[in-house]
Specification:
By secondary structure, the chain is an all-alpha fold. It contains four helices and no strands.
């Protein structure tokens, strides 16, 4: 049988904040705890998503897509890195066989 692990979160709020949260919870048919957790989780997910999105100006986006569509030729450093990667990848495959 799997055991669910949970963590406790608590907060002290003023009476007006408590009343507002309680009223909102009642209106949605949730317990106060359910309402607070769901509201906080929704906000947390929005913050995380916003931080993971890359924002670019039109100029930045244009340069980015240009580089993807028309990549420059590999320079010497990239050629050396690719060679080292291939050699290490080949060595790793041979060791695991």
């Amino acid at each position: 049988m799997a055991v669910k692990k949970t963590e406790r979160v608590s907060a002290r709020v003023s009476a007006p904040v408590y009343e507002t949260l309680s009223q909102a919870a009642r209106l949605t048919g949730a317990t106060l705890n359910q309402f607070i957790v769901q509201s906080a989780l929704g906000k947390a997910q929005a913050v995380i998503e916003q931080e993971q999105v890359i924002n670019m100006t039109m100029r930045d986006a244009s340069a980015f897509f240009e580089a993807i569509e028309n990549p420059p030729a590999p320079n010497n450093k990239l050629k050396v890195a690719m060679k080292k990667y291939r050699e290490s990848f080949f060595d790793a495959e041979n060791r695991s066989s």
